[in-house]
Amino acid sequence: MPTRRSFLAGALGAPAVLHGRRYTAAEIQRLIERGHVRGKISKDDLPTPALLLDLDAFEANVRRMAEHLRRHGLAFRPHGKTHKCGEIARRLIRAGAVGCCAAKISEAEAFARDGIRGLLITTPVVGRHKIERAVALARRCPDTIFCVDHPQNARDLDAAAGAARVRLNVAVDLYVGRRTGVMPGEPALKLAELIMSLRNLRLAGIQAYAGHASHVVGFEKRREASRAAMEQAAATRQLFESKGIPCPLLSGGSTGTYNIDVEIPGITELQPGSFIFMDVDYNRIGGRDGDFYGDFKNSLTVLTTVISKPAADTAIVDAGLKAFSTDKPFPPECRARPGITYSFAGDEHGRLSLAGEARSIELGDRLEFVIPHCDPTVNLYDRIYCLRGEAVEDCWRITARGMSQ
Ligand SMILES: Cc1ncc(COP(=O)(O)O)c(C=O)c1O
For the chain, which residues make up each domain, given as ranges? Predict the structure, then answer.
């Protein structure tokens, strides 16, 4: 005789079975919220759209980058803007990272709450309220480094730090072709001299992010672009030191240039971000030996469900712009199922054009997509489900989600 529960389960589609135990949707939700997922649920149980992390691929990526930088004698301060997740920052530090970069003050505050130290805020902190927060953060986490590219900002930081009786570590943010930063050479030297003269600031060194180089397609072209940028940074570091200004730090680099920037003497640390996850954007830039950039594995996907099948060659999934955030001209790519082409069909939906064997896709099928651009997509999710094969091994909060202030 079926119980009411088993009857409902059958009527609504069988609930998950792992290790002989069936869970309802409500039970699964509770397990997820408590983070008690190991040994209990599998990929098939997850409500979609869901952000998935293939732990084997993620761990291989972390190992590869950490070993590469160790071999070249460079420090490793991966950028937390990619993952926004305290647990990932902790794992990177366990793998040898000296800390974690943060794009903004609110992101750094979230990492600090998660116990992460060695923070480098890669965007200048400007404006009275943000500077107040910077000073408060420096009191809690004295090794935090703030980037400065303007004399007024240096003076404002100094005044706030003096009033609060703290000393702030600052790096001169150098313009090497992307966005913020003081010009290399003499303008940077002037700013460094000003910083040295201010009692409440301590010069940590230079930050130079050549983001325009990171996605240049073709290894040799990318090498040329990154070298042109980063050699200016190395020369500026030398200039500082020739004037008696100690400059222990020169931080920069990215996933696309990690094996280029190590060739430039004077760079002391790299701050790559995307290598832990990878995305469609990075796959296509080409590696040292081919058109596919396979140095790091795609560990991040979005799991979707087919919710409509209007025609044999068309299916609709439950994941649109609110599941994949991208500024790129290419769509999500279906993993392990050939013949599927995704196009955005609004905020909540994606349209799939189906060819060949993919025409057999049915309502309720679950499909995984590699993400066009990892950073802004991660920012759409509260948690990331960590898979070992099909089993959900862990579930990590994206603790700095939405922290863009
Ligand atoms: C300042 C800074 N450093 C490092 C990175 C990491 O770059 P990637 O994710 O390409 O490795 C970024 C990414 O945008 C960045 O803004």
Answer: 4-54+297-397, 61-283
Share of the chain above pLDDT 70, in %: 95
Are 249 and 216 in contact by the 8 Å Cβ rule? The answer is no
What CA–CA distance (Å, rounded) separates 375 from 372? 10
Which residues lie with the beta carbon below 6 Å from any ligand 1 atom? 79, 81-82, 101, 122, 209, 211, 214, 254-256, 271-274
**Which of 65, 79, 230 to mutate to test ligand 1, by most ligand atoms within 8 A of the CB atom?**
79
Residue 13 has pLDDT above 80, yes or no: no
- Ligand 1 centre to CA of 210 (Å) is 9
Residue 270 CA, ligand 1 centroid: distance in Å: 10
Which of the four pLDDT bands, split at 50, 70 and 90, describes residue 22?
Answer: confident
Task: List the CATH code of the domain at 4-54+297-397.
Answer: 2.40.37.20
- pTM equals 0.94
One-letter amino acid for residue 400 of the chain: A
What confidence score (pLDDT) does residue 3 get? 40
Rounded (5°) CA angle 322-304-255: 70
* Atom 7, ligand 1: residue with shortest CA distance: 254
pLDDT of residue 11: 38
Give dist(CA 385, CA 389) in Å, integer. 12
Fold category of 61-283 in CATH: TIM Barrel (3.20.20)
Taking the CA of residue 254 as reference, the ligand 1 atom at the shortest distance is: 11
Does pLDDT of 389 surpass 60?
yes
**Is pLDDT above 80 for 226?**
yes
In ligand 1, which atom is closest to the CA atom of 282? 10
What pLDDT does 178 receive? Answer: 84
Cα distance between residue 187 and residue 239, in whole Å: 11
Q: Give pLDDT, residue 1.
A: 37
- How high is the pLDDT of residue 10? 38
- Check: CB of residue 100 under 8 Å from CB of residue 118: yes
| Mutational pocket test of ligand 1: of 254, 283, 379, the residue with most ligand atoms within 8 Å of the beta carbon | 254
Residue whose CA is closest, atom 13 of ligand 1? 273
Query: Residues 51, 377: contact at Cβ < 8 Å?
Result: yes
